[in-house]
Amino acid sequence: QVQLVESGGGLVQPGGSLRLSCAASGFAFKDYAMNWYRQAPEKEREFVAGMISTGRWSNYADSVKGRFTVSRDNEKNMLYLQMNNLRADDTALYFCRAAAGPAGPYYWGRGTQVTVSS
């Protein structure tokens, strides 16, 4: 059974940091590209960051470049998102997604809430 379980969300002040984790099981994690997405209230889900299966290349949404860093540990089947200098507009439900290829199949977690507020 495929499972993606996000954790690490919470309430943080503007300028603060959080590290999100995504624990994967039930599929060959090392063969999948992994991505972080987020969805703010009343907005569409949007891409945040992604990393290919080997971990040798990653990409980011312009809004998070220079502040967020994606990483993965293929030995532990874990995906991470280090988020620094958080802003109010980073507030959202953050999801991890596994992708076997450009056309899928895709697997999604249920998300972890990040709230940036003073």
List its salient traits.
118 residues, mainly beta, 7-stranded mixed beta sheet, 51% strand
What does this structure look like?
Strands 2, 4, 5, 6, 9, 10 and 11 form a seven-stranded mixed β-sheet that branches. A four-stranded antiparallel β-sheet has the order 1-3-8-7, with no helix packed on it. By secondary structure, the chain is mainly beta. It has strands at 3-7, 10-12, 18-25, 33-39, 46-51, 58-60, 68-73, 78-83, 92-99, 106-108, 112-116. The protein is globular. The model has no long low-confidence stretch (mean pLDDT 97). Strand 9 and strand 10 form a beta hairpin. The chain is built from no helices and eleven strands.
TL;DR of this structure?
The chain has about 120 residues and is mostly beta strands. The chain is about 0% helix and about 50% strand. Strand 4 (about 35-40) and strand 5 (about 45-50) form a beta hairpin.
